[in-house]
Prior knowledge:
Elements: H1 15-18, H2 21-27, E1 31-35, E2 41-44, H3 46-50, E3 54-57, E4 60-63, H4 65-77, E5 81-87, E6 101-109, E7 115-121, H5 123-159, H6 164-197, E8 204-207, H7 208-218, H8 220-225, E9 229-234, E10 239-242, H9 244-260, E11 267-274, E12 278-284, H10 292-295, H11 307-312, H12 319-329, E13 333-339, E14 343-351
Parallel strand pairs: 9-11
Antiparallel strand pairs: 1-2, 1-7, 3-4, 5-6, 6-7, 8-10, 11-12, 12-14, 13-14
Helix pairs in contact: 5-6, 6-12, 7-9, 9-12
Amino acid sequence: MRRGERSVPVEEPPVGRLSLARPTLAALRVGVLVLDDRDRPVLVNPAARDMGLVHPRAGADEAHTILRTLAGQVRRSGQSREVELDLPRSGTVDGGSSEPLGVHVRASALSAGHVAVEAQDVTEAHRVARVRRDFVANVSHELKTPVGALQLLAEALLEATDDPEAARRFADRIQKESTRLGRLVTELMELSRLQGAEPLPDPEPVAVDRIVTETIDRTRTPASAKNIEVAVEGTRGLTAYGSEGQLVTAVTNLVENAIAYSPADTRVTISTGAGADTVEIVVRDQGIGIEPRDLDRIFERFYRADRARSRATGGTGLGLAIVKHIATNHAGRVDVTSTVGVGSTFTLRLPARPPDAALPLPVSVEIEPQSAV
Length: 373
C-alpha cells in the first residue's frame, strides 16, 4: 500500500439482494439453468422449462441430453462454449407439422464442477433463414426457366429466317416468354417492397367502391377474352384504411386469379360488406377449385397447385403471396374456402377505422412466484 492511501473495506451485499436472484431469473425470457458436477439441474427458471431444456424423469428433473454433453465439454476444457442447436421437441405448429426448437446456447464453468447454461430461443431466426434460402432457390429456378426458353427460341428464330410462318410463330413465343419474365421481375420487386424494403405509407381513408371500380377496369381484358362476367354486389359507400394502390393490387390479383382458373362463360363476383371493425371484399368464382391439401400453401411464394395450368396462364406463383403481405401490412387478413369443381372464395378483411382509433388492449402482467425457479 502506498503512503497516504488507506484501505477501504469491501462492502458485502446485503442478504436482501441475494433474495432478488430467484425472482429475477424467473422474470428472464432467456432460459437459465445450472447443472451440478453430475449434470443434475440445481437451478432452472421457467423459460428453460418452457423451452424443454429439462424434463421430469423418475421424480427429478433431467437436463436435455445435448446440454449434458455440452456441460461435460466445458468441464474438461474449462472454457466457455457457444453453439446454436435445433432441439427436437414435442408439440406441433402450423397445423400439425413438428418444428425443432432453435436455441443459441452459452455454457460457462462455475466452481465445484457446476456449469451455468444460458439458452435463447432463435427459432424464428432459423425459420427466416430457411425461408430466405428457399426464396433464393425458387427465384433462381423461376428466372432460369423463361431465360432458357428465350435463348432457345432466339436460336430457333435465327434458323427460321427462310420460313416466315415459323419465324412468326417463334417471335410470338418470344413475346409471351418476355412478357412473363417482365411480370415475374415486377412482382418480385413489389413483394420486396411489401416485405420491408421500403417504408409503408401512412394509412389513409380509401373508398372501397373506387377499389372495386379500378379492379374491374384492370381485369376487363382477360375477362372479355374468356367471356367471363365480373359482377359486383353488396354494400356501397364503405371505407377502408391503408394504401389505395396496394389495396387495388390485392383485389386485382384475386380477380385475375379467379379469371385465370375459371372456364369460359362463367361468372366472378366481387362482394363488399362490413363487420364490426372490418370491411370485407369477397371474390368468388366458378372455377376448378383447390384441393384441400393445397389450401394451406397457396399463399406461399411460388407455390402453384397446378404448375402446368399456371404456366399456360402466365402465372408466376407470386400473386397470392402479394395479397397476403398486403393484408398483413394493413393489419388485416385473407382467407380462402374452396370446393373442387365448384369454385373458390377469397375473403380480404381490412380495418374499417384508422389505427389510432383502435381500442387499446388490456394489459396483463404476470409475475412468476419464487418457487417456480
